[in-house]
Design brief:
It is built from 15 helices and 23 strands. It has 621 residues and is an alpha+beta fold. The protein has a seven-stranded antiparallel β-sheet. It has a six-stranded mixed β-sheet with strand order 1-4-5-9-13-12, with helices on one face. The longest helix has 23 residues, at 14-36.
C-alpha cells in the first residue's frame, strides 16, 4: 500500500471544498500576520547583532509552514494574489542563505556565534526541517527549482556538520522535525545521504553519554539546573527502547513520523515493533475522545495513563496535525482500517477545531470543556498552529486514498476526483458524498481500459451496518482488516454506492479516566459532538441525558456553514429552592425535562461565548 500524492487528488465539492475556501482566506490572513510581526522581513537579515533577542527564535519555521501550506493550496485552487506572495517570499528566503548553505535568520544575524551550540533548545534543525518540507512542496506544486536547490545545499551542509565522524557534531535537535523532512527530501531527490542523516539523528537520540549533557557542558552550563527531563524531548533512552508516548506531544508525533518513514524505507521490523507499542500506549491510555493528544499544559506534554482532564486539556492543534501525519504513515505499514479510524477521528475533530469557520482565528489549545473564556485568537507569539492546520486542509485529499500495483484503497470519503496509478493502468475515482453528515457515498470507477484490480473500501469503526451496491445491484462482500474487498474486472461506467449507517451514539470512557465517569460523549459518524450554551441556555454540567440516546439528527444548512445538529430531550438537575446553604439532602433535588441541541465539536466557539462541554452526565439505567 503506497500513499498517493496530494497532487493526485482534487477536492471537488461539499465539506472539504468549503474548508479549502476558508483555508485560502486563512492563508491571506496568516501572511498579513507574518508580515506585520516581522517574520517575513527577518529574511532580509537586517535585524542585526545586539538587537533584542526575540522569545521565539524559530520564526523561520512559521514562514516555511506558510509557504508549504500555500504551495499545497495553490495546487488545489489557484489564486493569483497568493501565488505572487508565495514567489516573493520564496525568493526572500533563498536570498538569506549563506555561502556554506546555512539558512537561519536568527543564528545568521542575531547570535551568529551560537550556531549549532544549543540544539536542545534552539529549534535550529526544526527550522531547517520546515524549510526543507516547504521547498519540496514548492517544487512539486510549481516545478520551480530555486527553493529546492537551496534546501539541498542546506541539507548537504548539514550532512557535513552532523555525523559520527571526527569533527562532526554527534547530536540531534531538541525538537524533532528535521528527520521526517530529510526523508521527504530523499524521496524527491533520491540522494541517499539525506536518508542516512535522518537515520543518524533518530539512532543517536537518547544514547549515553547524553548529547544534551555534552552540549550543555560545552556551553559552561550547570547540569543540575536542567529545567526539563529528557522525556520532554523523547531523549530519555534510545528510540528503539521507547515503549510509552511521553513528553512534548508535537515533538513526539514528528519523531514517530520519522520512525515510520524509516521503518518503511529500510524495511526495519524492529522500528515497526517500537511503533506498534507506542501506538498501543497512545490509543489505549493517552488520547481524548476528540482525537486530541497531549493533556498537560506543563511541557505541552502527554500526561500519565488515563490522565485526561477536560477543562485543562492542552491538546495543541499542532499535536493533532502531527497525529494525522503519524497515523497516515502507520496506516501504510499496517494496512488496518483501525488506524484510519484514528486518522479520521483526529482530522474531523481535534485538528479541525483549530481554525474558525471564517479562517482568521485559531486555537492553540483545544479543551473539551470551557467555562466561556477560551476563544480562538487571530495570532500567537508562538504561531506554530495556524499554518499547521492549513497544511492539513490544503492537502487533505492525500489522506483519502492509497494504491499499489493491483489494489486501490479508499480510507476516507470526501467529494473528490482521484487519479490512481496501478502497475499497467490509471484509474480515476470520482466520489460524491455529503460525508461527514451523511453516510451515502457514490463512487464512479474509470479504469480507462478494462482491467483487473481490487478496490478496498474502508468500513469505519463507528459504522455497524452498511450496504454496498455495484452498478445498482446489492453485493454482500467480505470485510478484511476493516475494508470491504471488491475484486473484479472493472470497466468504464462501473459505479458503487456505499451506504454507511450513521447513528447517534453514546461513547463512554475507560473507567480509569476519572474525569469522564458517569458521563457520555455524543458521536454521529466520524463527528464528536458538544453542547454549547448559545444553544442550551442553562448550566451545561447540570444537564443529564436519558439512559439511551433519543436524539434526532437534522441538517441545518444555515447554521455554522451547514451542519447536522442533534436535538432531543434531556433533564436538568434542580431543586425547589437553590438559595441559601450550599448543601442539602439528596432527596431535595429533582430532574426537570429540557430540550437540548448538540453541534459538531469542530464548529464550537464560532458564535456567542458561553460554556461548552463534550462530556455530558447520563441517567443510570
Ligand atoms: Zn502549535
Amino acid at each position: 500500500m503506497k500513499p498517493v500524492s496530494w497532487q493526485q487528488v482534487k477536492i471537488t465539492g461539499s465539506f472539504w471544498a468549503n474548508w479549502q475556501k476558508i483555508n485560502q482566506v486563512s492563508l491571506y490572513h496568516q501572511y498579513r500576520q507574518l508580515k506585520k510581526t516581522g517574520r517575513i522581513d527577518a529574511f532580509r537579515l537586517n535585524r542585526g547583532a545586539g538587537k533584542k533577542i526575540l522569545p521565539h527564535h524559530f520564526w523561520d519555521s512559521d514562514v516555511a509552514k506558510w509557504v508549504e501550506a500555500t504551495a499545497l493550496s495553490l495546487w488545489q485552487n489557484f489564486d493569483r494574489g497568493l501565488a505572487e506572495k508565495l514567489e516573493k517570499t520564496v525568493k526572500l528566503i533563498v536570498s538569506a542563505q549563506q555561502k556554506d548553505g546555512y539558512l537561519n535568520t536568527h543564528f545568521t544575524v542575531v547570535e551568529p556565534e551560537k550556531r549549532f551550540t544549543n540544539l536542545r533548545d534552539s529549534h535550529e534543525l526544526y527550522c531547517a526541517g520546515h524549510l526543507i518540507e516547504a521547498a519540496v512542496a514548492h517544487w512539486l506544486a510549481t516545478g520551480k527549482t530555486l527553493f529546492l536547490k537551496a534546501a539541498c545545499r542546506y541539507a548537504d551542509y548539514l550532512c557535513q556538520v552532523f555525523g559520527p565522524r571526527k569533527g562532526q557534531i554527534r547530536g540531534y535537535d531538541g525538537h524533532e522535525e528535521i528527520e521526517l523532512a530529510l526523508v521527504k527530501l530523499f524521496r524527491v531527490t533520491g540522494c541517499q545521504r539525506y536518508l542516512s542523516l535522518a537515520s543518524f539523528f533518530v539512532e543517536e537520540r537518547g544514547k549515553k553519554p547524553h548529547f544534551f549533557d555534552w552540549e550543555a557542558r560545552n556551553r559552561g552550563e550547570d547540569l543540575t539546573t536542567l529545567r526539563r527531563s529528557y522525556q520532554y524531548y523523547q531523549a530519555h533512552c534510545p528510540v528503539r527502547q521507547q515503549r510509552e508516548v511521553v513528553g512534548h506531544a508535537v515533538r513526539a508525533m514528528y519523531l514517530y513520523c520519522a520512525l515510520a518513514d524509516l521503518a518503511l524505507e529500510k524495511k526495519d521490523k524492529s522500528l515497526l515493533r517500537t511503533l506498534r507499542l507506542l501506538w498501543e500506549d497512545l490509543i489505549t491510555k493517552k488520547i481524548y475522545v476528540t482525537g486530541g493528544i497531549g493533556s498537560t499544559r506543563e511541557g505541552e506534554a502527554f500526561g500519565q495513563a488515563y490522565e485526561l482532564p477536560n477543562d485543562t486539556a492542552y491538546c495543541e492543534t499542532c499535536a493533532a496535525c502531527g497525529l494525522v501525519f503519524w497515523s497516515h504513515r502507520l496506516l501504510h505499514l499496517e494496512k488496518k482500517a483501525k488506524i484510519a479510524d484514528i486518522m479520521e477521528l483526529v482530522l474531523y475533530n481535534a485538528a479541525l477545531a483549530g481554525i474558525s469557520l471564517e479562517g482568521k482565528t485559531f486555537f492553540y489549545v483545544n479543551p473539551l470543556w470551557s467555562g466561556g473564556n477560551h476563544h480562538r485568537q487571530s495570532w500567537y507569539d508562538c504561531a506554530c498552529c495556524p499554518s499547521n492546520i492549513s497544511r492539513v486542509i490544503s492537502s487533505v485529499g492525500q489522506y483519502a486514498y492509497s494504491s499499489s500495483e493491483k489494489d486501490i484503497w479508499v480510507h476516507l470519503y470526501m467529494e473528490s476526483k482521484a487519479e490512481l496509478h496501478l502497475a499497467d493502468s490509471q484509474v480515476i475515482l470520482t466520489v460524491k458524498t455529503d460525508y461527514p453528515f451523511d453516510g451515502k457515498v457514490f463512487i464512479k470507477v474509470e479504469p480507462g481500459k478494462i482491467c483487473d484490480f481490487t478496490l478496498f473500501l474502508r468500513i469505519p469503526g463507528w459504522c455497524r451496518s452498511w450496504k454496498l451496491f455495484l452498478n445498482g445491484e446489492e453485493k454482500v462482500l467480505p470485510v478484511s482488516s476493516g475494508y470491504l474487498r471488491i475484486k473484479r474486472t472493472w470497466k468504464n461506467g462501473d459505479y458503487l454506492q456505499l451506504v454507511l449507517e450513521m447513528k447517534t451514539e453514546y461513547l463512554q470512557a475507560h473507567p480509569e479516566v476519572r474525569f469522564d465517569i458517569g458521563q457520555v460523549a455524543l458521536r454521529r459518524g466520524p463527528l464528536i459532538y458538544c453542547l454549547e450554551q448559545v444553544d442550551n441556555k442553562v448550566s451545561l454540567h447540570r444537564i443529564i441525558l436519558p439512559a439511551r440516546p433519543e436524539l434526532k439528527a437534522s441538517f441545518r444548512p444555515e447554521l455554522l456553514g451547514g451542519i447536522t445538529v442533534l436535538t432531543g430531550k434531556a433533564y436538568y438537575l434542580t431543586a425547589a429552592n437553590l438559595s441559601g446553604w450550599l448543601y442539602r439532602e439528596a432527596e431535595a433535588f429533582s430532574l426537570q425535562p429540557i430540550k437540548i441541541t448538540a453541534i459538531p465539536y469542530y464548529a464550537w466557539d464560532n458564535r456567542k461565548a458561553g460554556q461548552m462541554t463534550v462530556w455530558v452526565r447520563r441517567q443510570e439505567n
